[in-house]
Each structure stands twice: as structure tokens, then as C-alpha cells.
Automatic annotation (TrEMBL):
Keywords: Amino-acid biosynthesis, Methionine biosynthesis, NADP, Oxidoreductase, Sodium, Threonine biosynthesis
Protein name: Homoserine dehydrogenase
Function: Catalyzes the conversion of L-aspartate-beta-semialdehyde (L-Asa) to L-homoserine (L-Hse), the third step in the biosynthesis of threonine and methionine from aspartate.
EC nos: 1.1.1.3
Family the UniProt entry places it in: Belongs to the homoserine dehydrogenase family.
Cofactor(s) needed for function: a metal cation
Catalytic class of the enzyme: oxidoreductase
The keyword NADP is annotated on this UniProt entry: yes
Residues covered by the ACT domain: 374-447
Length: 450
């Protein structure tokens, strides 16, 4: 009988043998790559014990060799500006992609997989856009594709969905998965920092993407939501399937208003299974948007660049994961964890569990999903205005859970909080309010977690 490896059945995937060095290529030496190389040096003895073979760095690829050649982490290592040349080298077993972007790393990763190398990547944009193509290439070549660091950096949420909850039915995954935006919203709320100041600090600390638009427009969180939904619901969900709204329209006034109602604004990623009255799954939805969270909710106290993810599963119940969601060392921790997994399989044989999109649920458009709105508007303070406006909601079949009014001169600030209703109906009512004679301005519309 063939013996099983730590991660898979090794009959079809024989190993190199205990003690044989595992060659790796590291592509990128920025915030994450630098920490990966530093920790590879610092932990090398322990890693060798855990893998039963040493890891040997065959080369490091950067775009500007001159800039990096004197850095301590690359002394004695082969440094090149030609990543393509590294990924197919015979003595490379595992490629660690830490460049970022989509098109070029996609080519490199496909070349590496095609040449029989396992790949470890922290690149959520790549996985969310081309995950199925990469997974198919890894399967065809019988190698591993790992991307724990792609979601919430040090928090082991991909492995948790891939392995620990593999026997359960995940119902919902929600949480804070972008460190930069959490840092910005927290700084605006707690220190009164401006949006620009907070973003500059998050960039200086290495949390933000090379182009921070990906963070503040919600694209980074949407990539992570696509990965989480794919893993959790065994369905291929891509970046384009995820509804995405960032934090660029959240103002200091919104944050102040949230405080006054004992709430906090967080950028949440929400992935949910939609279930009909008979308990059948009708589809899934994944979305990212600013969300009002009550202060007593654990997510409200997640500050700085920390991330936190709630998972609700049928048998396990509610689970919460909290930790460092961005930054060089926390991300390197996840990369090294994946590297140990991939290296063990190279040495002992076997493969890691791959994604399995057998369920293939339809992705339901956001408009069909149920949400709740918190609408803040300025209206004329005249007899009948409040009654007229609330009638509009009733006519659209939307029930209200709270209405608050504060008069100032001829105007009134009106806050309307709805019960759960279809997103597209809520959206339509906001359009109506915006054009209404008695509504001077709709100041903000922020969803509550339904
Ligand atoms: P950086 O921008 O800090 O580093 C990118 C590195 O890639 C640089 O060393 C750059 O070289 C190199 N590079 C760029 N183009 C090429 C090329 N054509 N060939 C070879 N090397 C190239 O990025 P990060 O380290 O922050 O992020 C890397 C990946 O990790 C991204 O996918 C990101 O989304 C992901 N990630 C980042 C986290 C973070 O907190 N920073 C957390 C989780 C994931 P040079 O220095 O010479 O310009
Ligand atoms: N830019 C990302 C963030 C890095 O701020 O969360 C971690 O994926």
C-alpha cells in the first residue's frame, strides 16, 4: 500500500526524498519579499527540520537590480531583473510570486506551473481574476498552488476554509479584510486625521497596494471576497462577480454621525449563501461596501490595520478570526507557511488539497439581495414633509425601523433606517428621494449589515 503524505496521497506525486534540497525562486523584493527573504535566513534551521530538507534560494527577481544589490537579504544570492529566466530553471522546485499586478505575474505563474514548479503567491488580484485558470494549470501539472497570504495576510483563513471546514457547510463569511481602509477609517474616527493623512500613513507603513486606489475603492477587498466565496461555497467566484463600493465617499460627517448613534463605519466584505423558504440554496452573493456596525459588535473594535473575519457554518456555528491583515512580516508568515507545505510535498510526495468548485452555485446579482439602509438627508421643515416621505417607502414596500429628525431653521436633518429589503428597491427609493422637491440633499446612504 502506498503511504499517505502529510497533505495528500503521494502515489501519483512522488517526492524528491528526505534531505534533498528544495530550490526556490523569489519574485519581488518589496514590502513582502524582503521580509520573506529575511525570515528564510533567520528561520532556516527550523524550516529544514519541519520540511526534512533545506530550502535553498536559487534567485531573487526584482525590476531594478541596482536598487537592491547591496541589501542584506540578498547578499550571496543570485539577483536578476529577468523573472522569466528564473521560473523555469531546472533547479527551482517552488516559485514564490510577490510582484503584484495581474498580467505579468499570470504569465510567470502559468510558466512556472507548466514547468512543474509549485507556486506560492500573495497576489489576491491575480487569484481573484484568474484563479480557475491557475488551479487548472496546477492540476494538469500535478503541483501545488498556495495563496494563504492573499487574504488577510497572517490570518489563516484560506487554510481554514480549505482544510478545517472542508466537512462543513459554510453559510456566511463576513468581515474586515483590508488593512489600509480599516486604518484610514479608524484614524479618521479616533484621531480626527484627514482621509489624505491617514492614507499617506498607511502607505508609509507598507499596508497599501502599489496603487492604493485598489484599497480605497474596495477592489482589494473584493478580490479577497471572491477568493473567500470560492473557497467557502465551492463555486468559482471572480472579482467581476463581486459588488464593490469603496470608502472614498465616506466623509468625516458620516463618521461623526455614526459615532453619535453608537455605531462605527467599517468596510465589510460579505459572502453569503442565499437560502429559500424550503432551506434550499438558491445561489450565493459576494459584496464589499462601507457598513454601519453597532459599537457592541466585535467588528466595531477592530482598529488600525487589523482584520477580522466571521465565518458561520452549519455544524461549527460562528467562528471569528482576528489578526494582522497587512504588512511585511505578517504577510511573510503566511507565505512561509505555504512554502513549508509546498516544500514538504516536494520532499515527501503528495499534493495539497486544491480548490473544488463542484457546487457551482449561481452568483446572484447584488440588486436581488436583501440589505438595510441608513439614509441621512436634509429636508424642508414643513408640515406634511415627513409623512410624504415615509409614504414613499411604504409604497415601495419598504418598512422603516427608525426615523429621527433634528430641526435647524427652515431645514431638518432626517435619518431614516430601513428594515431589510431588496437592494434594488432601496436603491430606487434613494433615487426618488434625490429628485424630491422637499429633499434638499441626500447626505449619505450607508448600509447596515442585514
Ligand atoms: P511592493 O510594491 O512593495 O514590491 C513589489 C516587488 O516586485 C518589488 O521588489 C519590485 O521590484 C518587484 N517587481 C515589480 N515588477 C517586477 C518585474 N517586472 N520583475 C521582477 N520584479 C518586479 O509590493 P508588496 O511587497 O507590498 O506586495 C507584493 C504582493 O503581495 C502583491 O501581490 C500584494 O497584493 C501582496 N500582498 C501585500 C501585502 C502587504 O501588506 N504589502 C499583504 C498581503 C498581500 P523593485 O523593488 O525593483 O521595483
Ligand atoms: N493592501 C492590503 C491591505 C494588503 O491593506 O489589506 C493586505 O492584503
Amino acid at each position: 500500500m502506498t503511504s499517505a503524505s502529510a497533505e495528500g496521497f503521494n502515489g501519483n506525486y512522488p517526492g524528491k526524498g528526505i534531505g534533498t534540497p528544495v530550490g526556490i525562486a523569489v519574485l519581488g523584493k518589496g514590502t513582502v519579499g524582503t521580509e520573506v527573504l529575511r525570515l528564510l535566513g533567520e528561520f532556516s534551521d527550523n524550516l529544514e527540520q519541519r520540511i526534512s530538507s533545506p530550502i535553498e534560494v536559487r534567485g531573487v527577481a526584482v525590476s531594478d537590480v541596482e536598487k537592491h544589490k547591496d541589501a542584506p537579504e540578498v547578499q550571496g544570492l543570485y539577483l536578476t531583473g529577468d523573472a522569466r529566466e528564473l521560473v523555469t530553471r531546472d533547479d527551482v522546485d517552488i516559485v514564490v510570486e510577490l510582484i503584484g499586478g495581474i498580467d505579468y505575474p499570470r504569465e510567470l505563474v502559468l510558466e512556472a506551473l507548466g514547468a512543474g514548479k509549485s507556486v506560492v503567491t500573495a497576489n489576491k488580484a491575480l487569484v481573484a481574476a484568474h484563479g480557475s485558470e491557475l488551479a487548472d494549470a496546477a492540476n494538469a501539472a500535478g503541483v501545488d498552488l498556495y495563496y494563504e497570504a492573499a487574504v488577510a495576510a497572517a490570518i489563516p483563513v484560506v487554510g481554514m476554509l480549505r482544510r478545517s471546514l472542508a466537512g462543513d457547510q459554510v453559510q456566511r463569511i463576513s468581515g474586515i479584510v483590508n488593512g489600509t481602509t480599516n486604518f484610514i477609517l479608524d484614524a479618521m474616527a479616533s484621531t480626527g486625521a484627514s482621509y489624505e493623512e491617514a492614507l499617506a500613513e498607511a502607505t508609509r507603513l507598507g499596508y497599501a497596494e502599489a496603487d492604493p486606489t485598489a484599497d480605497v475603492e474596495g477592489h482589494d477587498a473584493a478580490s479577497k471576497a471572491a477568493i473567500l466565496a470560492s473557497m467557502g461555497f465551492h463555486t468559482r467566484v471572480t472579482f467581476d462577480d463581486v459588488y464593490c463600493e469603496g470608502i472614498t465617499h465616506v466623509t468625516s460627517d458620516d463618521i461623526e454621525a455614526a459615532k453619535q448613534s453608537d455605531q462605527t463605519i467599517k468596510l465589510l466584505a460579505i459572502c453569503e449563501r442565499l437560502i429559500d423558504a424550503e432551506g434550499n440554496t438558491t445561489g450565493i452573493n459576494a459584496r464589499v461596501h462601507p457598513t454601519l456596525v453597532p459599537n457592541e459588535h466585535p467588528l466595531a473594535s477592530v482598529d488600525k490595520s487589523y482584520n477580522a473575519i466571521f465565518v458561520e457554518a452549519e455544524a461549527a456555528g460562528r467562528l471569528m478570526f482576528y489578526g494582522n491583515g497587512a504588512g511585511g512580516a505578517p504577510t511573510a508568515s503566511a507565505v512561509l507557511g505555504d512554502l513549508v507545505g509546498a516544500a514538504r510535498n516536494k520532499v515527501h510526495g503528495g499534493r495539497a488539497p486544491a480548490e473544488n468548485p463542484y457546487a457551482d452555485y449561481p452568483v446572484v446579482p447584488f440588486g436581488e439581495v436583501t440589505t438595510r439602509y441608513h439614509i441621512n438627508m436634509t429636508v424642508n421643515d414643513r408640515v406634511g414633509v415627513l409623512a410624504n416621505l415615509t409614504k414613499r417607502f411604504a409604497a415601495a414596500g419598504i418598512s422603516l425601523s427608525a426615523v429621527r429628525q433634528e430641526v435647524s431653521g427652515d431645514e431638518a436633518h432626517l435619518i431614516v433606517v430601513t428594515h431589510a429589503a431588496r437592494e434594488q428597491d432601496l436603491h430606487a427609493i434613494v433615487d426618488q428621494l434625490t429628485g424630491h422637491d422637499d429633499v434638499l440633499s441626500v447626505n449619505s446612504v450607508i448600509r447596515l449589515d442585514a
